[in-house]
Amino acid sequence: MSADNREQPEGRRPIGLYLGGGAFALVIGAVVAGSLSRPDPLSFVPTPVAPRPPVDHFVLDTVTVDARDGSGWVYFDFDKGSAVEGPLAGWDLAVNRYHIVVNGGTGYPGAGGAIATTAPWAAVTEAPAAGYETTEGALNDGPATPGLERWYTYGFFSHLLEPKDETYVIRTAEGRYAKLRILSYYCPQATPGCVTLVYGYQGDGTRRLTG
Questions:
Q1: Is the pLDDT of residue 17 over 90?
Q2: Which of 29-38, 40-49, 168-177 has the lowest mean pLDDT?
């Protein structure tokens, strides 16, 4: 029998097998540790529904829309600075859990639209004249506004939705303009469905998005 065909001595194992097994165990350990060390997300208490009189100037504000109940949509009106009671009251954004759509598109009464941009908040000083994406699909049939639909990233280990570093320009239902950033998707105790928005709304009808 040639030397190449000799059996290995009993009890001898290839070192590569051990190295491969060790690496696999390390990977599994990292995945388990990551899933157990879920960070606490930024969270906010829902803002009470309190519509204000319409404004004719630039307004900066932060609002937390309570969209925890996925059985229906919650409506927000920039002009009133608040959630409003149902679509007949006039609205600019509709929120259902992590879905956000504008009041514009086929079948919608408003002129709403959205543009997503990676520009910093302070750099967005004027709303574009065109390029706005409108809502596709009815509210009761899984609608989506392309400019707003993927505002988040999903954490594989944390299982949390994290807002993207984007500024959104919104054309409202009445054809006015606002800019917004999404700060968080969580209520206290990491309960999902509280969508917190910081926004600047121009009530004078111009495209200027500064005070």
A1: no
A2: 29-38
Domain that holds residue 88: 58-202
**CB 179, CB 121: distance < 8 Å:** yes
Q: pTM score, two decimals? A: 0.82
What does the pLDDT look like over 132-152, one tens digit per residue? 999 999 999 999 999 999 999
Return d(Cα 103, Cα 95) in angstroms, integer: 11
Contact 122, 130 (CB under 8 A): no
Parallel/antiparallel/unpaired status of strands 177-187 and 191-202: antiparallel
| Structural domains in the chain (count) | 2
Decide if 121 is inside a domain.
yes
Confirm if 170 and 147 have CB atoms less than 8 A apart.
no
Q: Which amino acid is at 117?
A: T
Nearest one of 183, 177, 184 to 200, comparing CA atoms: 177
CA atoms within 13 A on the CB side of 158: 11
- The Cα 114–Cα 46 span in angstroms is 24
From the list 152, 21, 31, the residue with the least C-alpha distance to 98 is 152
9 with 96, same domain: the answer is: no
- Are β-strands 177-187 and 99-102 bridged in parallel, bridged antiparallel, or unpaired? unpaired
With a cut of 90, say whether residue 124 has pLDDT above it: yes
